[in-house]
Design brief:
Elements (H helix, E strand, L loop, with lengths): L1 E6 L3 H8 L4 H10 L2 E5 L2 E6 L1 H21 L4 H21 L2 E3 L13 E3 L13 E2 L2 E2 L5 H12 L2 E5 L6 H14 L5 E6 L15 H19 L2 H9 L3 E5 L11 E5 L7 H8 L7 E6 L13 H8 L6 E5 L9 H14 L1
Parallel strand pairs: 8-12, 8-13, 9-10, 9-11, 11-12
Antiparallel strand pairs: 1-3, 2-3, 4-5, 6-7
Helix pairs in contact: 1-3, 2-3, 2-4, 3-4, 5-6, 6-7, 9-10
Length: 342
């Protein structure tokens, strides 16, 4: 826990800085997840070290604007906050170190392996809340993943279960929608059965497909209020669909996520990747160790990772067992299965 103070001696400046009904103050608290209080002409900021420093920078800029112009608009506050978010992203981008050897992750094709040693994972903070907490990478590998998504129009991520491949991609998509950088989120999954025959499930086609799409819906519902998510889906702003429904479409101004990509065929992967339109972004994630395709059928994800590795504009990240952030037993379970298989 770190804290710092800012002096604002004029009470009128404090009122202008915090905004009507503290609207500016709430926006700053929300972005940086810090505590801000005022007493005796001093504004006290407390929280994580980097968050306190960033919030203090924003407040100093806003204080100068108040002293010059006598007030602040909501648009001016949002602009300063947006500039701070952009600065943090540039800082994160500069911390990604490229090496020629290693196995942790690949970004930009065959140029080498990227890994961030000592990267501040808080720098990859995503401007979305879940259960009252701001979403941020919890491991260095996840921080590299978020940086790759932000720096590439197409990102591949492979890794074991529980490493946050889907969750972080959905969070980045919701953030992009919130900031009006895209107009639509499309969440896609191949309808491949993992050992069970779902054709015997009751209900219509939508009901039968629901088990395939449920993990994507769960991720959305953690980040977007249920009623708002339902409204966005009704307006077709958020679309959750099986991979087969992507054929023949071109998606512009969209954030498209393909989950469980190891269960695509080579032809399906090619079809999906060529759906990308202007000003769109794609994330393809999966675990090549958990392929549920019929024996002898080549995984589209495994094929794409080999086929496209020479294209520098494509980000490729490989998350490891150390990036698993589910229950602490999951890492041990994955390690046990890999040990027996090997």
């Amino acid at each position: 826990m770190t804290e710092t103070t800012l002096e604002v001696s004029d009470p009128n400046d404090v009122l202008a800085l915090f905004g009507a009904r503290d609207q500016h103050l709430r926006a700053i608290r929300s972005q940086f997840d810090v505590t801000i209080t005022h007493r005796d002409g001093k504004i006290r900021i407390a929280g994580d070290h980097d968050a306190v420093r960033a919030a203090a920078r924003v407040l100093r800029v806003l204080r100068t604007m108040v002293q010059r112009h006598g007030g602040l608009s909501g648009e001016e506050v949002e602009r300063v906050l947006a500039e701070e978010r952009q600065d943090r992203r540039e800082s994160l981008k500069g911390e990604v170190v490229t090496r020629v050897e290693g196995v942790e992750g690949v970004a930009g094709g065959a140029a080498g392996v990227t890994f961030s040693r000592g990267m501040d994972i808080r720098a990859g903070e995503i401007d979305i809340h879940s259960a009252g907490r701001r979403i941020r990478p919890r491991t260095e590998g996840q921080a590299v993943y978020v940086a790759a998504i932000r720096d590439h129009d197409l990102t591949f991520c492979s890794g074991p279960a529980g490493t946050g491949k889907t969750y972080l991609a959905v969070a980045c998509a919701v953030e992009a929608l919130k900031e009006h950088r895209i107009r639509k989120i499309v969440l896609v999954r191949p309808a491949v059965e993992a050992g069970e025959n779902l054709g015997f499930l009751p209900g219509d086609l939508r009901a039968k497909l629901n088990p395939y799409l449920r993990p994507l819906l769960d991720a959305i519902n953690e980040m977007v209020d249920y009623d708002q998510a339902r409204s966005l889906m009704e307006q077709d702003v958020i679309e959750v669909i099986p991979l087969a429904y992507m054929r023949g479409r071109t998606l512009n101004d969209a954030f498209i996520i393909l989950d469980e990509a190891q269960n695509t065929t080579v032809a399906q992967m090619k079809m999906f990747l060529t759906r990308m339109g202007e000003r769109s972004r794609m994330v393809v994630s999966g675990d090549v160790s958990q392929v549920d395709l019929p024996r002898g059928v080549q995984s589209g994800l495994r094929d794409a990772l080999m086929r496209l590795q020479g294209i520098p504009e494509i980000g490729m990240i490989r998350l490891q067992k150390t990036d698993i952030v589910r229950h602490k037993l999951v890492q041990q379970i994955v390690r046990a299965y890999e040990s027996l298989d090997s």
